[in-house]
Amino acid sequence: MVDLSDIPAHVNLLRFDSKNERIYDNANKTNRSAIKLCGGELFILLDDKEILIFDNLICSLSKNIFDHFKLVYRSSDDLKTKMGLILQSKTHDEKVCIFRSGIANNEELAYISSGNDAGISLASVNTEKNIAILQSCIGSVNSLNTRLFIDNGLIKLLNSSLNKTLDADWVFDQFDFISSKVDKNCQSQLYFVIPDNLESHSKAKSIIASYRTRIMTLLNRGVQMILPLHKSNVVDENIKEHARECAIILADHKNLVAGLPCLKIPAKKGKCAIDLRLSDVDVEAIFSLNVYQKAHFFGLSDVSGRHMPLRMMLARIYGVKATLDASRTAAVFSNNSCGKKIVSELDRAFKTRKAYAVITDQQVKKSDFYNQFDYLDDKYDPKLSGIVTQRFYDLIDHDITEFWLIWNNIMSADLHVDHSDLEEWEAQELAWQLIGCTASMELVIFKGLKSHYLEVFKPYCESEIKGLSNFEKRHKALEQIFHKERADFQYDMLVP
User: Fold this and answer.
1) N or C: which end of the chain has fewer CB within 10 A?
2) 111 and 81 share one domain
3) Are residues 83 and 107 in the same domain?
4) pLDDT digits (tens, 9 = 90+) for 368-418
5) 202 in the same domain as 125
6) How many domains, the chain?
7) How far apart, in whole angstroms, are the C-alpha atoms of residue 399 and residue 401?
8) What is the superkingdom listed in this entry's lineage (predicted)?
9) Domain range for residue 9?
10) Tens of pLDDT along 103-160?
11) Same domain, 321 and 457
12) Residue 476 belongs to a domain
């Protein structure tokens, strides 16, 4: 908020000067002093007549307006109402879920192993093709409570050379199968894109009406159903009216998500470009309905430049919870990209004999040393004794809480221990009793710890491993670039 007394006197003159020559002249005099007022987040409310003046006011500041103005909001509507929305928005949750979408091979499962929410297209991953990838994604929802975005595959079909149409029956069969494999308490982590028709709003509505029963069943389970809302080239079709009518068909369900396109489909051989993108005005028109509590932005990510802050601002002002998705793999491994650089660094690490620092868990499990190392080696070998178990036993005296966390992680459910009601000395005494009760128990502990402490084997496996495969290098690069904290992650679950 800027007090009027802080605005340079000649700025006010711009409001009443509609001649372009004077606008440019005054803008050059004004913009430097005006920008000093912008210390942080800035909302600017203008009517239609003032937009041209504002554009010229900031035109010479920078090629990228967002270097100076974090957020710009234009409005020709009632300014008092919009001011209220902006002030109220300061209390809204700004957390945004970003799906790393386009997963279609094992290396891209690194998005999940690095702690991200994942996205797939049914055109590439389904119950008939790449089912192992699908199973891995479903497993991450159940075990890690990650979210999973599933596109219906229409855009993939449009981008391909195949002249196929989307089979909505097949798509809903896929949705039903995936939903049936996800735990009941995790259904809300699923985001399904409802089949669409790009020709007109009326044809898109007919699909929704035809499959209303199946859509409502999924909505009532808790699944987030994303309804694509794209612009139409048909005369007299209005996006705001279309969005409202679709919501009415689906009973304004709380799990209905407005799907807003943000990417243009480029021209291909024999195919014209398809531009389904909605303008900021269209997006605001949909949000102003106060029907959609959630919105998903197709093809928008954290590297989308000026478009992301504008869309996120609108979502926040109207109290809409936003999710985004975009495929990043191709960009990450393009020429001179960060992915390429990491792959080169991994190669150099092996050549300089620092292999153990980059050896993967999967390589350890395939090594002869790991597979031949057994309980007796850990117990009696003079050079290797205790490399697996000793650090675990030391936790009893130094960190009993960590001891029981690992214990419950490596043991079957019937051997889990709840030590929360025990005094520290009681928990320690119980630990000593359990680990030494029988030789068979020691063997069970060793087997669990052997899989848990894979890093202790890496220096011993170095001589066996000549280098990382292309898959392993790309997988590790994606993990490093997109790493997020997820301490409970287990990579084994993701690679069948």
Assistant:
1) N
2) no
3) no
4) 999 999 999 999 998 899 999 999 999 999 999 999 999 998 988 888 888
5) yes
6) 3
7) 6
8) Bacteria
9) 4-89
10) 999 999 999 988 899 999 999 999 999 999 999 999 999 988 899 999 999 887 776 6
11) no
12) no
